[in-house]
Design brief:
alpha+beta; 6 strands; two-stranded antiparallel sheet
């Protein structure tokens, strides 16, 4: 009954056509991506301060106290290695202590909520300007969104937490391997600082990837709930678009049959689901299946 009323209400918008492509182009929530980056950068600074205030001074102190005069020809440096290991254990414990007071879960859950808010705003505008229906403010407050956000938040908290610990492990390897190979302390310290920069870059990539995936999941649910069965694949239109994704640009696909994005492997996915994908799904409204 309700669906019939909806179809009668939007009939003029379709002008006798069976389907109607959205007049509004959806977009990736870049402001949320930046917020995710701010959170990860703040979390990474826990390690940065630890490296500057604790790790590097401990390394210099250990090297000064334990390195023999003939360091470059000396094989027995067990005392140095033990002291360095104690220094890294101290850093690991301090990192855990600082991380506990950071409240990462709360900050990431706020990022997730903002993603949903902007996605819903985008979707309401598409529906309003294309088929002329105003969706209610609480249109998407159901259990699906609550479960999806909780799961995404937990996964991302776990993901972000691993970054500084992985960096710390790599720094340990740099230090121990450096001294084994006769590298100077100054060069070892520079290598540690460079590794920290690599970790920050990795965190930025994670931000883009994870926000895109969450936005894609929300988009998928919104469109299917509204009876939208098909969409137009739209890439970001720049040089960074993968050839496999550009090949799909402007073509129509079904939500129940994701297209092949990699012809070599046969891998399939929808826009935004692939790693670092910035593509979006433009909804195609069908008057017979519309359910708003």
């Amino acid at each position: 009954m309700r669906q019939a009323a909806v179809r009668e209400h939007v009939k003029k918008k379709f002008k006798g056509k069976q389907t109607l492509q959205s007049k509004v182009h959806p977009h990736q929530p870049e402001s949320v991506e930046r917020e995710y980056q701010r959170v990860t950068n703040a979390y990474m600074r826990l390690l940065s301060k630890l490296v500057t205030d604790t790790m590097i001074p401990e390394i210099r102190k250990a090297a000064k106290a334990e390195l023999p005069p003939d360091y470059y020809r000396h094989d027995d440096m067990d005392d140095l290695y033990r002291r360095l290991e104690r220094a890294f254990e101290k850093c690991e414990k301090e990192l855990e202590r600082k991380a506990r007071s950071f409240d990462l879960y709360k900050r990431i859950s706020e990022v997730a909520a903002l993603t949903v808010k902007l996605s819903i705003k985008d979707w309401k505008r598409m529906v309003k300007e294309t088929v002329g229906i105003d969706l209610l403010e609480d249109y998407y407050n159901g259990d699906f969104f609550k479960r999806a956000l909780e799961e995404w938040t937990r996964e991302n908290v776990d993901l972000i937490k691993t970054i500084p610990h992985q960096q710390l492990d790599k720094m340990r390897e740099i230090v121990l391997e450096g001294y084994r190979n006769g590298t100077t302390t100054t060069k070892i310290v520079k290598a540690i600082q460079k590794e920290y920069g690599t970790g920050r870059s990795h965190a930025r990539l994670i931000a883009r990837d994870q926000i895109s995936k969450l936005n894609s999941e929300i988009t998928h649910k919104q469109q299917q709930d509204a009876g939208v069965q098909e969409y137009i694949w739209s890439d970001s239109g720049d040089s960074r678009v993968r050839s496999g994704h550009h090949r799909l640009n402007g073509k129509k696909f079904r939500w129940d049959d994701p297209p092949v994005v990699d012809e070599r492997t046969g891998r399939r996915c929808h826009p935004g689901e692939d790693f670092q994908c910035r593509c979006v799904a433009i909804p195609v409204f069908d008057i017979d299946t519309l359910d708003l």
